[in-house]
Amino acid sequence: LNLVLPEHLGDALMGSFGIAFDIDGVILRGTNPIGNSPNALKRLYNHSGSLRIPYLFLTNGGGIPESRRASDLSKLLGVNIDPVQVVQGHSPFKNLLKRFENELIVATGKGEPAVVMSEYGFKKVISLDEYESYFNSIDPLSPYKTWTTKQPFHEQRSSSESVPEFDVTSERVKAAFVVSDPVDWSRDIQVLCDILRSGGLPGEKSEHQPDMYFAADDLEYQAVFPSERLGMGAFRIALQSIFNSIHHKPLEYTSFGKPNPFVFKNAESVLKQLQLMTSDCDVTEVHKDATSHHFETLYMIGDNPSVDIKGAKQAGHPWFSILTRTGVFRGKENHTVYPADQVVDTVEEAVEYILRREG
Ligand code: G3P
Ligand code: MG
């Protein structure tokens, strides 16, 4: 997007604000809206249903493409959410396209990790589920895994692609991506260790470790169960600890997601684009420059002090952090290690606070 904003509008937008909402523990628990989130979001639209205040979802979760997440959230929350407004933990993986576009890569996690990566443009991506099937007995426990639950999402290649065009059993995997929370930890740890220790081809030997990427590093997060659940950071610790115990060189990896400062920088630039889509911004010219606009305040509403609040604090101006009590954090007062700029009970209260503060 390359927009050039007329000067007078650039001035009019000074002093404006935007909002980033965490999802798990703020907007939803599982698929249940919490803290009156549908009402809170409704206030960010005008009567005709068009966007009044720029906002986005900034979640460390994921597992399905942003377009599908946007339509699922629209249904659950009763407002019209654009895919641009959904930034998931794995969204920055698309920045690695140049490096791995035509290389063999594996993707794992709940949902449709390979579909997510294919939609970003990666041409030779295979899910760990499918990768496993090319290596006989690679998971000695698989015969004992008798679960037959119906998966909410099941990855399916179209019939023309049912057999990958690349040779999975002789080509080295260049990178492994944990796209969303892994489902079968024992299988994933086993097969990832095989890939990482063998230079990308289980059974082979090589000193070179393929690249290892995690979409986020949350130790715990708030799901439906009353107390926190183990997140991708917990899986990373398990994999790393086992890998480092069986291999002579420690695991090298990169984690994305909040609290990394670049996530907040990216959110700021998406919010600038969204500002131009709001009903109060009457910009109709073809050439507009979203980059020239500066927000006075950007609000991060989150439930996890060491992820959402720490991230907003590290990002600095113009970020202002609001901590809710609907998720990981349940304290009476502020969090002691990562105190937020404001603490409220629910996301609805957070939005009320922002609208009052912005007058
Ligand atoms: O798996 C999701 C979890 O790690 C965090 O999601 O929306 O609280 O950033 P969220
Ligand atoms: Mg959360």
UniProtKB/TrEMBL annotation:
One GO MF term: hydrolase activity
Pfam assignment, any one: Hydrolase_6
Claim: Chaperone is one of the keywords in the record: no
Record flagged with keyword Signal: no
Keywords annotated in UniProt: Hydrolase
NCBIfam families to which the protein is assigned, alphabetical: CECR5, HAD-SF-IIA
Designated name of the protein: Hydrolase family protein
Annotated source species: Tanacetum coccineum
